[in-house]
Amino acid sequence: MKSSTYRCCITMRQMSLSSSLIAFWPSSVSMTIFSISHLDICNRRAFAFDCKVKKVAQYTITYFDIRGRTEAMMFLLADQGCEWKDVYYSYQDWQDGKVEFKKTTLFGQLPMFADGDFTMFQSNAILRYLGRKHDLYGKNNKEAALIDMANDGAEDVREKFYKCLYVEWETGKEKYLENLPNELKPFERLLSQNSSGFLVGSTISFADYNLLDVIQNLQAVAPDCLNSFPHLKAFQEKMESRPKLKVFLQSDKHKAPMLPPF
Ligand SMILES: N[C@@H](CCC(=O)N[C@@H](CS)C(=O)NCC(=O)O)C(=O)O
Questions:
Q1: Cβ(153) to ligand 1 under 6 A?
Q2: Below-50 pLDDT ranges, the chain
Q3: How far is the CA of 247 from the centre of ligand 1 (A)?
Q4: Residue of minimum CA distance from atom 2 in ligand 1
Q5: In angstroms, rounded to a whole number, what is the distance separating the alpha carbons of residues 67 and 40?
């Protein structure tokens, strides 16, 4: 995050310089003062100071250093032009009981999301929170319900995929891949019924970011899985060519999907 240098002047009656600044300074901006001079302007106490101002990420995502349940929220944040801080724990240390922080988490699991002082768990609840906050939850109650429906559907696909990948890959992969078109059909249907190219309504929603993440994960084990789904293919192209999302997808922050053997 870039910092900028400013020369400022404030006048005050009683308070010190620091307490005057603290009174109105937003927590998402950090300021370092590196020179102060006292002035007297029209019989009022004043300070002139030079300072460096830096925007601090308002959001923090705490997770393991893997592609998993945080990529969709990162797609959303990157595409909406938001910055965030990443905090990573080693998955092995977590499993071995070496991470004290685990005891403080609500469900003993990650991801954890923070918006300033506000913290929460559960990846889909986080997506919904961001959906509400960034106006990515449809235009009315019915659109919001359909977005929930699509997102729950994407969650079902994700769950089955993770189960196959992590629990029964060697024994279950053939059956899983054979059935994969049936998992994707509902999304092809939704997209074919909506001329915007998004899952619901005329604008992007948090469910679109989630579906994109699910598709990319599936393609790591089944590269041609969208071949018979033109609307899903067009959806992926549309999503991946959004300028800010494209920059994120080409960055080091974007992680490759997990692949067996682990
Ligand atoms: N329903 C939760 C599931 C979270 C979850 O399964 N987290 C896994 C990593 S993806 C985890 O923390 N595993 C470590 C553990 O269970 O101790 C969500 O969507 O956030």
A1: no
A2: none
A3: 28
A4: 122
A5: 58
